Amino acid sequence: MKIIDGKQIAADIRADLKARAAAFLSKKGIPVGLAVVQIGDDPASEVYIRNKIKACGETGIRSVLRILPADILQEEAEYVVETLASDPAIHGVLVQLPLPNGLNASRLLACIPASKDVDGFSAENIGALAKGEPGTVACTPLGIMELLQRYGIRPSGKRAVVLGRSNIVGKPLAMLLNNADATVTLCHSKTNGLREISRRADILVAAVGRPRFVTAEMVKEGAVVIDVGIHRADGKLCGDVDFESVSKKASYITPVPGGVGPMTVAMLLRNTIEAAERQA
Ligand code: NAP
Question: Which of 66, 127, 220, 241 could form a disulfide with 214 if both were Cys (CB 3.0 to 4.6 A apart)?
């Protein structure tokens, strides 16, 4: 069994990105710019935002954080996002999800043009992914594909099972794996016989948001297991996979922490720099 070292791969990618950001600055005279919009004060979102902003600073990306009150009107939030998106010194805009109740995420995200949609959540970018055309892809699924590629794991012809169909992880990942010629099954809370389906997977991805949901009985001997979940239990972090039992059966497995998580941030930085390079 091999542990997939997302932390190391993310560090390697970030070192390359730092050089790319520096090259952009010296060529264009302005730094790559990312605007982050936080609405409300969800504690988990605040941690994610802090990490993203810190990573931007370490990479040489200028970040601008706009914190808006939870009770802001939809139209006001849209105005802020549109204003940021129209600034030529801002190359990427992201709105941290989930939004407070009462705000329409789809309408707000629609205010970000596809060229600056570094999270890959816009209808245009999701449409491109669905058609297998070039576009910006959501950071977590993109990070997972990068991990597979760097470990020489080719999805082509393999049976891939994705547990969880969220718009930000499960669904786009299923499309990416399909585009890479895997045979994909996308499971969710209404799936019948989930254990049997997951047991047939050559590549099994857990993105259900339930601590240690995937146990050894659900995993085929020699499967590649990717754990997207992040949970805090008894003061420690754990994933959607019961690492201890599953790691005895898997050929490759991502740990939590140090697997998918660091890749998500690295892919956000890459999407932002690529957006800047395209706009320039
Ligand atoms: P989400 O929006 O809550 O979606 C969870 C999905 O799992 C849904 O599709 C749901 O099915 C399905 N599900 C829930 N219980 C299930 C069950 N018992 N059997 C089968 N399917 C079940 O979650 P998410 O945003 O995709 O995130 C998933 C996990 O990844 C969370 O722990 C989150 O914190 C973590 N995460 C990590 C990163 C990272 O960078 N590492 C990034 C994003 C998310 P229905 O659609 O039928 O409700």
Answer: 241
Q: Is 92 in the pocket of ligand 1 (CB under 6 A)?
A: no
How much distance in Å is there from the Cα of 211 to the middle of ligand 1?
Answer: 11
Domain borders along the chain are 29-113, 139-261
Tokens representing 30?
């302005």
Atom of ligand 1 nearest to the CA of 190: 47
Task: Answer whether 29-113 and 139-261 agree in fold.
Answer: yes
| Buried/exposed 178-211: b ≥16 CB within 10 Å, e otherwise | bbbebebbbbeeeeeebeebbbebbbbbbbbeeb
CATH of domain 139-261: 3.40.50.720
pLDDT in tens, 263-279: 999 999 999 999 999 99
207 CA to centre of ligand 1 in angstroms: 4
- CB of 249 closer than 8 Å to CB of 214: no
**Closest ligand 1 atom, residue 265 Cα:** 40
User: What pLDDT digit, counting tens, does each position of 172-199 carry?
Assistant: 999 999 999 999 999 999 999 999 999 9
Spatial CA neighbour of 145 closest among 6, 7, 37: 6
Which CATH class for the 29-113 domain? alpha beta
